[in-house]
From TrEMBL:
Its main location: membrane. It comes from Neolewinella litorea. GO terms for cellular component: cell outer membrane. Keywords: Cell outer membrane, Membrane. It is found in: Cell outer membrane. It comes from the Bacteria. This is Tetratricopeptide repeat protein. Residues 541-660 form the OmpA-like domain. Pfam families: OmpA (PF00691), PD40 (PF07676). The keyword Iron-sulfur does not apply.
Length: 660
């Protein structure tokens, strides 16, 4: 899926080179996310490669470039080529995902099964296999239907680019597209196409489209509109940098209809910097927005939030929506039909990628268990932005028409808009058994699988369950201690409206903690038992072994802790708080440039700055040691004058080691 409104990315002149520096090789193009540029370069480089290892690296980059430009059939072949040339399990994992997107489910299941044996854990791929098996069952059910529930067809105005998120306005549609007619002359080198704009399709049965409005469309990315009931207020997503050479985050904007046009857009006041807000959906009374965001308090990935307009007309504070809806995956593209909420998720059980789900509030205020819309609305690829435009009749035989978007194979471009007609079929006979509601939480304790066993600096291949681990489950002041089974799991029947805290422990491991809320979990008579999952990842203690702390950077010739380094150190402080018996050394390393004495002094100051930061977070000073190593312990061995910038970056690192 390539719609840029899903991610935070660096736009235009970020770093001064992303779009202006000349790219001379395929690897650099991939590093700068210029995938369309990378493909022909990598194809030429593969033919010239002289070693198996070099062929493997090029094949992997080429497969990624094909994937990111919407060519999964080619990506499958090149991921296999990368694996055959020694790249390892990552290539097979990507191949299996591409097979699912292509709906080659049996091949995907076999590939995931092979992967499980290779890394030593089938657990890692259980959801992927279950989703492929579900897709095969649903496909068989659809083929057995005498009268199909859905009829689906692509719209006439799809283009070779990405077209998605069509909504109704007046008698036509407004949608998002990065087709060549979009505003601005710059090319988004990820896709080789334009940045996205809003477009209008006055007649949805025709191929004719026009740019939506010049006061809304800019050289940046706009998309995913939602209109107030009277059609005079539009909420939409715009991704633009606040200044040159800065990251572009997505925000939610509002524009008002003025005569025959639209006003300049203004960002809604609850949108904060350094996070992505997108995909707004406005309720029928115009007083509530539901949107997707990747805020820190969420459950993981992108979550759905709701925000209300207050009596004075101002917007309140967004609330994270129910755990029945949000998962540790991504929930995006909400749309509303009355009080029924449609949204897409890759965290709920689905057929592959994003699937479209439906839910609605019950009488007690909690949301019903989300229901997968199944085939042919959902596919192995990404399916999203489901809208209802018209209803005809009521009861059995009545129809509903509307639109959704998909990156499934066979379309005109990377994402396409599809029209559907849904017919209400007779319901199945009711079950005579009484309904018993149960919400079950499966807690699994897991650990990392390292490519080199015993080396925490080696690549992580996946996760495996930890048997016989201790889990302390707490509700308020009450707690109980349970031991996991041979699959590293324990199952709890949840009590409604409780906040659960969990702590996982095992000798010679760092403890981990997690939480789960059973507030407002659904009670669905058609699916009375709902199961949820929580992973607790405990880390094996490797004493006196260096572990690199990612994303710790310093300004040139400075030692203070930058804001972008704080999340990593905050996470380390939480590990230390959960494990009060361990002591660590914070180490700082420089690259080889500069005098030895200078590098030693600078690295010592940087290590001490990291220690001081942890002390400010409440960690006792006697549990921390600072040591600057200067340039004495490089991990990328090279002659200094010939080191690449990537090798210098590897050597400039902040580390910690657990002391005896």
């Amino acid at each position: 899926m390539y719609r840029i409104l899903l991610i935070a990315f660096v736009l235009l002149l970020a770093g001064g080179c992303t779009y202006t520096a000349k790219i001379t090789d395929g690897t650099t193009a991939v590093e700068r996310k210029q995938y369309d540029v990378a493909v022909p370069m990598l194809e030429r480089e593969f033919k010239r490669a002289k070693s198996r290892g070099e062929q493997g690296r090029i094949a992997m980059n080429l497969a990624i470039s094909y994937r990111e430009t919407g060519r999964d059939a080619q990506a499958v072949e090149w991921f296999q080529m990368a694996y055959d040339n020694g790249v390892g399990p990552d290539a097979l994992r990507e191949k299996a995902s591409a097979l699912k997107r292509l709906e080659r489910y049996e091949e995907a299941i076999q590939t995931y099964t092979d992967l499980g044996f290779e890394i030593g854990s089938r657990y890692e791929f259980r959801k992927d296999i279950a989703g492929a098996e579900l897709a095969m069952r649903l496909k068989a059910e659809r083929e057995a239907q005498e009268v199909p529930e859905y009829e689906v067809s692509p719209v006439a105005f799809n283009s070779p680019g990405a077209d998605y998120a069509a909504v109704s306005l007046d008698d036509g549609l407004v949608f998002t597209s990065d087709r060549s007619a979009a505003t601005g002359d710059d090319t988004y080198k990820w896709t080789g196409r334009s940045f996205s704009d809003l477009f209008a399709a006055p007649d949805p049965t025709s191929s004719a489209v026009t740019p939506f409005n010049p006061s809304v469309n800019t050289e940046f990315n706009e998309g995913t509109p939602s209109f107030s009931p009277d059609g005079n207020t539009m909420y939409f997503t715009r991704c633009s940098p606040p200044a040159k050479r800065s990251d572009a985050y997505c925000g939610i904007y509002r524009s008002e209809r003025v005569g025959g046009g639209w006003s300049s857009a203004e960002k809604l006041p609850f949108v904060t910097p350094d996070a992505n807000y997108m995909h707004p959906a406005v309720t029928a009374d115009g007083n509530r927005l539901i949107f997707s965001a990747n805020l820190n308090e969420g459950w993981g990935g992108y979550d759905l939030y709701a925000v209300d307009r207050l009596p004075d007309g101002k917007w309140g504070t967004p609330d994270l929506m129910s755990r029945a809806i949000n998962t540790d995956g991504n929930e995006q593209f909400p749309t509303l039909d009355g009080d029924t909420l449609y949204f897409s998720s890759d965290g709920l059980e689905g057929l592959g990628g994003l699937d479209i789900f439906r839910t609605w509030p019950l009488e007690d205020g909690r949301y019903n268990a989300p229901r997968n819309l199944k085939m042919p609305i959902n596919s192995g690829a990404d399916d999203f932005a489901y809208t209802i435009v018209e209803r005809n009749g009521t009861g059995i035989g009545s129809t509903t028409t509307g639109y959704f978007s998909s990156s499934r194979p066979g379309g005109a471009g990377s994402d396409d808009i599809y029209a559907y007609t849904k017919t209400v079929l007779p319901p199945p006979p009711p079950s005579p058994d009484p309904v018993v509601f149960r919400n079950v939480l499966d807690v699994t304790v897991v650990e990392k699988i390292f490519e080199e066993p015993g080396n925490p600096r080696s690549r992580v291949l996946g996760l495996r369950p930890v048997p016989n681990a201790t889990v302390i489950a707490s509700i308020g002041d009450q707690s109980r201690t349970v031991t996991t089974n041979e699959e590293g799991q324990l199952s709890l029947v949840l009590v409604d409206n409780q906040e659960y805290q969990f702590r996982a422990e095992r000798p010679d491991y760092l403890s981990d903690e997690g939480r789960f809320s059973s507030r407002n979990l659904p009670r669905d008579p058609e699916a009375p038992e709902q199961r949820y999952e929580l992973e607790l990842e405990i880390e094996k203690i490797f004493r006196n072994q260096e572990i690199v702390l990612e994303n710790i950077y310093y300004d040139f010739d400075e030692s203070f802790i930058r804001q972008d380094a704080q999340p990593t150190l905050n996470e380390l402080s939480q590990v230390l708080t959960r494990n009060p018996d361990i002591r660590i050394e914070l180490g700082s390393h420089t690259d080889c440039r500069g005098r030895d004495a200078y590098n030693e002094t600078l690295s010592q100051a940087r290590a001490q700055a990291a220690v001081d930061y942890l002390i400010s977070k409440g960690i006792s000073a006697d549990r921390l040691a600072a040591r600057g190593y200067g340039e004495s312990q490089p991990i990328a061995e090279c002659i200094c004058e010939r080191c690449t910038e990537d090798q210098h970056q590897l050597n400039r690192r902040t580390t910690f080691r657990i002391l005896e």
